[in-house]
Amino acid sequence: MAKARISGAERRRRMVIRHHLHPDHPAASPTEAAERLVGLHSSDPATVFLSARARVPGITVADVERELYDRPSLFRTLGMRGTLFAVPAGQVSLLLHGCALKLAPAQRKRLVGYVEGSRGCRHRCRHCPLPAVYDGRYRIVDLESILADLQWLTENGAEHVTFGDPDFLNGPAHARRLIEAAHSEFPDLTFDLTVKVEHILAHRSIWVEMAERNVVFVVSAFETVNDRVLAYLDKGHTVSELGQAVTVLREAGLVVRPSWLPFTPWTELSDLDDIFSFIAGQGLMGATDPVQMGIRLLVPEGSLVLSIPGARRRILGPYDFSTLTYTWQSPHPAVDELQRRVLALAEEGSRGEMDPRSTLHAQWSAARRAIGRQPPSLDEVDWEESVPGLTESWFCCAEPTEIQMAGVSG
Fold first, then answer.
1. pTM for the complete prediction?
2. Backbone Cα Rg of the chain
3. What is the pLDDT of residues 163-182, one digit of tens each?
């Protein structure tokens, strides 16, 4: 049987049809066109509209904007050679992991500035120190003051800004105005935000917009994968919603960096292994700081943990003025032993004795051994070197480590 040969002319004929450029084979929508092409070029704002117009007869600018913004079925993300593409939702993860996350190592470390767009917090999560001070009160900072701060920071070398608001979406309208103004005034600045899981899901429509305005990652307090503990902490989300939040941000081209609170008075011995399994299953190892795995609940004076029935009598010990927290111990001594071991491994890593991947593997192995399971292989710690983040690990609501206390005491 003779082998079929495809000439250059035949290849071009097929490509014109496949790419919906033949008048007899148009696409029904920009999304359909993007699905056949993997994505539509989008680095220049006009190119995605021109690409769609060439493939979908009679389409208008408003039609394209509807699929990009109003009822999004196309999402902008970095692709090959750092070029921006508009791609269907099903292709976002492919480009994110195949291209976008691998572009970050080429970016040098940047000096980071810190700004707050608001003060206080509307929420009253029990483990958070803020309700003791603000009691659910919240006020915004005027845009003029924030832009003046950004001006000073950029003049002094900042190339990335972390917004330190306890929750950047406490005031969604203000947040959108702020990012729009900041990006307009300082188009080369990149940003990161801290946002609750429930707000990530409640405001799904804004994340593509945030990514387009140089937000590169979002910190979110996942805390644990134990619904009972989340209820005690009054977090406002459930374990089933964590994966949804990861998906929402990834589809917008954003990296999520969860923060964790693995050790509380209600933690079960298997919880840490469950957290690691979730992290591995979601491909979040590269976005995980080892110190997060050893965090213990901080209970300062005025903490809403004190309002939990029986907390003072059955859970908490005396107040420790040296660490500014009520003391507590787990009812299961093995949990406290595991926490000390995991934190010690994190501190070994911080001294350069292990790289982050090896540290996380050692911590997960300790969690597995504590419950009598075989330790994971190193391959299970699927590592992404390129995940953007800060060199100073972000966490709060946590008892200080010995290294941190030594730094304070001198």
1. 0.72
2. 24
3. 989 899 999 999 999 999 99
